């Protein structure tokens, strides 16, 4: 196992995976608690269409995907609760349309080096040195922004109306949250692909909520759990030869089931020590 991790491409994948897992879990807490969890799935499908467009035009993938997904994230968060369509309808419409457009575009470049499986299910082991540097820079920016904005995101998550009445620029910070989420989704697509990347946003928070009660506790447990699940899933993939993205999601699912069981046992008082009987 030590020899396996001595390869440069394994080290690059490991570093990128940890950073993306950490960013996704932190932002996922705000998204899930605000009931925006499906936006991650919608943005991943938009990213698939943007990647397909970049392949057709022979443009750098990140240069096309990040701006497109950022614009889509801003539109989706602004549509939530407004208009006849609503947020959920907009997510479903945009996700299905982007996926279909992406498949049609990729069909035009069939026979080249384009592999649709890499778009759909990720290709973490194919991360190059330039991709790793870009992922590290973007991930550090997301983490630094999250730490600086933590009090405001906390207020925005639980009561946006009260936050706005208190003088907080709700629209501004909602836009910042959407931009950070979009950038993280784009990075995660390289790891899990457009079909599975939303699991990085949803699973850690839902798992942490089974045993943690406060916002801070959910955030910390979500971050630790996400990184641990990535390490276990990545290791399992290397040892068993299973797909990296699917292995990480399966480990996250197992963690959720374990935490759900522990939470159910705690709620029933099975962890409470009984005093000595008289």
TrEMBL record:
Cellular component aspect of the GO annotation: ATP-binding cassette (ABC) transporter complex
UniProt key word Transmembrane: yes
Location of the protein in the cell: Cell membrane; Membrane
Pfam families given in the database record: ABC-3 (PF00950)
Gene Ontology BP terms: response to zinc ion; transmembrane transport
Listed InterPro entries: ABC_BtuC-like, ABC_TroCD
Gene3D superfamilies referenced in this protein's UniProt entry, alphabetically: ABC transporter involved in vitamin B12 uptake, BtuC
Family, per entry: Belongs to the ABC-3 integral membrane protein family.
Protein name, entry field: Metal ABC transporter permease
Parts forming coiled coils: none
UniProt membrane topology term: Multi-pass membrane protein
Keywords tagged on the record: Membrane, Transmembrane, Transmembrane helix, Transport
Species this chain originates from: Candidatus Aphodenecus pullistercoris
Membrane-spanning intervals of the chain: 12-33, 45-77, 89-109, 130-153, 173-206, 218-237, 243-264
């Amino acid at each position: 196992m030590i020899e396996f991790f001595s390869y440069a491409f394994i080290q690059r994948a490991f570093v990128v995976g940890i950073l993306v897992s950490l960013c996704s879990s932190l932002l996922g807490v705000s998204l899930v608690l605000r009931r925006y969890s499906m936006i991650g799935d919608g943005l991943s499908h938009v990213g698939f269409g943007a990647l397909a467009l970049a392949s057709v035009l022979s443009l750098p993938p990140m240069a096309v995907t990040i701006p497109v997904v950022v614009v889509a994230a801003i539109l989706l968060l602004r549509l939530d609760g407004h208009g006849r369509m609503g947020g959920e309808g907009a997510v479903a419409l945009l996700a299905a349309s982007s996926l279909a457009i992406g498949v049609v575009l990729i069909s035009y470049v069939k026979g080249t080096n384009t592999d649709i499986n890499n778009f759909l299910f990720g290709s973490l082991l194919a991360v190059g040195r330039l991709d790793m540097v870009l992922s590290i820079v973007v991930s550090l920016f997301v983490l630094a922004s999250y730490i600086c904005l933590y009090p405001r995101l906390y207020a925005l998550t639980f009561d946006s109306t009260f936050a706005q009445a208190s003088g907080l620029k709700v629209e501004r910070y909602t836009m910042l949250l959407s931009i950070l989420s979009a950038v993280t989704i784009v990075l995660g697509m390289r790891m899990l692909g457009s079909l599975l990347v939303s699991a990085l946003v949803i699973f850690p928070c839902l798992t942490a909520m089974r045993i943690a009660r406060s916002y801070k506790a959910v955030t910390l447990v979500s971050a630790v759990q996400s990184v641990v699940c990535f390490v276990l899933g990545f290791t399992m993939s290397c040892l068993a030869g299973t797909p990296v993205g699917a292995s990480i999601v399966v480990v996250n699912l197992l963690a959720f089931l374990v935490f759900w069981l522990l939470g159910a046992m705690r709620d029933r008082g099975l962890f409470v020590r009984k005093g000595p009987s008289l």
